[in-house]
Structure formats: C-alpha cells, structure tokens
Predict the structure.
Amino acid sequence: MDPRKFRLGLLFAVAAITLAFVAPLAHGAPALLLRPGLWQAATGAGVLCALAAWFADWRGIAPGLAGAIIAAAVSLLLLRDPGITGSAAAGFWAIVVAAWLAAAMSVTNLASLRPIRKQRKRMINIAVPLLFGATIFYLWEVAVRGFGVPPVLLPSPSAAASRFLGSLPTLAADFNQTFIRGVLIGYAIGCGSGLLVAILAHRFEFIGRGLLPLGNFFSALPLVGIAPIMVMWFGFDWPSKAAVVALVTFFPMLVNAIAGLSAAGHIERDLMRSYAASHRQSLAKLYLPAALPFIFNALKINATLALIGAIVAEFFGTPTQGIGFRISTEAGRMALDMVWAEIALAALAGMAFYGFVTLAERATTFWHPSYRT
Amino acid sequence: MTSSSLALAPSSARTLARHPLVERYAPVLTTVLALVAIWYIAAVAMNWTLVKDSFEREESPYTVSDILAGTMDAERPLLPAPHQIAENFFDSVFGYPPLAPRSLVYHSLVTLSATLLGFALGAVFGIVLALMIVHSRVLERSLLPWIICSQMVPILALAPIFIVVLGAIGLQGLLPKAIISAYLCFFPVAIGMVKGFTSPDPLQIELMRTWSATPRQMLWKLRWPAAVPFLFTSLKVAITISLIGAIVAELPTGAEAGIGARLLAGSYYGQTVQLWSALVASAVLSWGLISILSLIERGVNRGMGAR
C-alpha cells in the first residue's frame, strides 16, 4: 500500500481525536477533558496513531490497530453516559471516525502485505476478514446507539447478543425443533434418495436420460412453494418440515450425482472390465469414489437449501417452537432483538453445518487435484 | 439429393427408434408419463378415505366406482388429480380478464414485477461488487470471506425483518419485496462474476500489459468478454432465487396479491387446487424467465462470434 496514503489517513485520525477534545461530545454533556481516565486513553490512542503515521510501513500496523481499539473502547465507554446515547454530537463522532480511519488504514496495510512464509500468510488471511467484520459490527453498534435508532428498526449487535445469551433455553428448543428434527432428518432422506435414484439412473441409461432433464427442470423451480402442501399432508410438526427439506434437497443431489457417476474416465472403466468386476464392485470401487467431489458439491448446496426450506416451511404453520416460527411471531411483536438472535442462531447452525460437510469432504476426497496443492 | 434427406429416407420401425428426435425425447416422455400415472394412483389413494367419509356422512349408497370418480374431482382433495390442476390453471389464467384480482395472470404479474426489479438491482449490485473485489486486493481479502460466509446463512430468514423494517420506514408494496429478491440474488452474481473477471489466464493479462493497456481497457477488452459465460450461468441461478425471494417475501406481510399470497390463502382456506395451480404458475414463470435468459445468452454468444 502507498505509505503516503497510510500516513495521511492516520494523520486525519490524529486530527479527529484532537477535534474530540475541542468539540462537544453531546449537547449539554461534559467535555472529554472533564472525564478522568477517558481523556488519557484518547490521548494514548492519538499518540499511537501518530506513531503509526511516523512509521508508515508494516511497523505502523500494530500501533495503528492498538490506537483504533483504544479509540473504539473510549467511544463505547462514552456511550454508557445516557447524556450521549441518542444525542451524540461532533466530538463523539470524531472519535468514531478516528477509530474507523485507524482500523481501515491498518487493515488495508495488513492486507497488502505479502509474506513469504506460509504460516504468516494464513494468519493474515484469517485476521483481515475478522478485523473487517469487527469494524463493521463496531460501526453498527456505535451508529445505532449514537443516533438513538429505535430498537424497532434495528437493534444494536450488543442488544441482540445479550438477548441471545439471555434466552438460551428458548433458542435451544427452537434449534432442536428446526435443525435436529426438520433439517437433519429431511437432509438425510433427500440426499440419500437422490443418490439412490442417481445410482439407478446410472445403471439403466434409459431412466437416466429421462430423469436428467426433469431433474434440471425441477431444481430450477421455486420448490419451497410446496411447503403449504406438505404442512397439509404431514401436519404442523416436524415431519412436514423434513418433507419440504427432503424435496428441496433431492433434485440438486440427483443432478450432481448423475454428473458425478459419469465422471469416471474411460481407461478406468476399461480396467474394471478387464478385471471382470461386477457392477456392484465397480460402483463401490470406481464410480462412487469418482463421484465424491460432485456429491459433496451437492451436499454443500443442500446444506444451505435445507435450512432455508425448513425455516420457510415454518412460516406456514408450526407447533409453538422453531426458528421460523419465532422469527415470524417476534417480528410481528416488533421484538427485533429476539429476531436477530434467532438469525444469529440460524447463521451459526448453517455455518457449522457447512463447515462439517467441508471437513468431511477434506477427509474423503484428499486425493482430488483441488486439494493437492 | 443431400445426405440428410438420404438418411431420413428409410422408414422401418428400427430406424425410427434410432431417430435423433426419438432418442432424445422418448426417455423424457416416458418418465413424464410414468410420473403422471403415479400421480393419478397417488391421488386415488390419498383422497380415498376423504371421499368415502363424505359419502358415509351423507348416508347415501355408494359403489367403488363412485369413490373412484369422487377422487378425481373432489372439491378439497388432499392431492388433486393433474387434470383438475390443469383445469383450474387454465380457468384462472384465461377465465378472467387479466387484471381481475381472481386472475392468476394478475398475481403472476405482481410477483413478476418484484422479481424483475429485484433481479435487476441484485445483478447490477453483484457485478459492481465483483468489479470492486477484482480491482482491490484489500476488498478481496476482507470482503470475499464474508460474502462466502453469508452464502451459508439462511438469508431467506431475513425476509420478514426486512418487510417489518421497511414498513416502519414507510416503504410498502413493490420495493421491499424487490429488495429481498435483490438481497438474495446478488450473491451468486457477485461470486460468479469474481470468478469470471479473474478467468483470463495470466498470459493474456500479460499481453495486455505489454500493450500498456489501462485498467479500463483491460476490463472492457479482456475481463468483461471473458466473464460473459459466467455472467449468464450466474444470472440463471440468480433469477430463480429472485423469484423464490419474491414469493417468500409475500408470505409474512399478508400481501393481498402475488403468487405467495395465493399460496398462503390456499393453505389457510384449504383450497388445494388453487394452491397447486399457483405452484404451476410459479413453475411456468421460472421456466419462462430462464428460457428468456438462455435466448439472450445465445444471441450474445452469436454476437461475440461464438459458434
């Protein structure tokens, strides 16, 4: 990164912190200098930013980040004052801008580093998105509380987090209802039957040529629309959700598995034939292993689809628990912090599910070119 | 005589079975017919007790053939027979003036407008995002992991919140639905276009460098043409997702119009036939949108000199 840009950005951050000492923090609130502990911290942040601007290369990253974190902490501590929350003025926002500038400059600088060692490269690749996300969450928090955005519109992340921790039993029950029962069972049924039909279609070419266009057609349809019908057939409880999930996951698995089963090369097939392998043997030893990357691709696509299918199905009727049920009722009651807590739960579950499938893929398809770096 | 007419000349049954059209469509047709047959059998099986109970409630004498006939045209069947759905579909498409609230065309148009607006917004946003990511190393490193992470988040769960939040600001009607569609469909476009913009191989990029091409020239003359196949693949995924988004967005608001509203009303009042015909309408919409995109793709490919 251009060191002049880095220096300029950090000097702006120093200027912003200086401004915070002069401008009012909020209308009628005591100035920064009258708050013991905080003004020293703010000065420290300013000095660190100035130090980073002095270096203006990779040595500037650490003091820049430290300055950003201290400035962010100062602004968050200031928000504890009810006189500032909701009516923050120029001085307060100057600190926020300083924190943002210092963080942005340091992260940009960090991202443009090109370390030779693999381990460091990996650490940077993890640290940069994490710092970026932390900055976004910080800005969200400060903006919501500083401007006094009504919680009906958008709750602060801290409110959603405290709600998340405060209602763990409810969330656990919802998770159990939606994820363990609806998603996992439906996912197993849908993916399993998709794979079985694909194996049949691979064995009997006629079925395969009939099913493939249909599978392509169906996997492009808005299948979640089937949810009300499944609710009608299987009742309000989890079987209807599992049915929707099974249906939604069936076609991607079918299409991908058919493609995967025909991915085995001619030479390998001829080899199996020259060994006089039965169909079952060549299926187990050649076709299925060759299809694994495709199958895992479908499993990954389905991990997301399954969760969406189950949540949408719950909009059409549930017993009084479940992620989708909670989202729609709490949104109706304007309790948006609970809604965001549920979304965080769904996001965590989705990512964990996806991560698990990815780990399984790594463990079973280590031989594939895309992993042999 | 040309060779193709020669090939078509013999008309014994054996060569007819080998005819390319037959070879291509016979399996599909068989599968479709088998599905329809299974459907009819399932309709009889699932509606059997329903019809039988209604006969017994009226205490009128009945025979097996009466029940069979009843399963084919029950008013609120568990599973309507295909011909019932087709009848209801044609009736609600052609039976009313297109803009009457009972017409399926009207509801489809409502959903279609939200879909298309959301698709346009989402596609443009996705392409812009991809451009930013491709041109900035910092964004690639910091933003891309989050975009990929958010792929694993059930974004559709956000739909009711968006509707509530936007409704509180005072936005109602078409725009909130379109925003949900856009939010859902910009991911595949962004990811696909990042792949597309980075698909030219290093040799070509270096060749452009030796000609001292500016970044803009590099974009228009190399990256953009290379990304076109990726663009259409991701657009086809995106437009289906956009349609799903529009339909789901109509659920929590209790919207009066749209395919989603039709689905919700059908499920509340037990109007199964109406529900199924709304599903057929969504299938037709999605299929039509994808075919239009395929047509455009073919035209663009031809314009770019592909064979």
User: Anything to note?
Assistant: Confidence is low (pLDDT under 50) at residues 1-9 of chain B. The radius of gyration of chain B is 26 Å. Residues 188 and 234 of chain B are 6 Å apart (CA to CA).
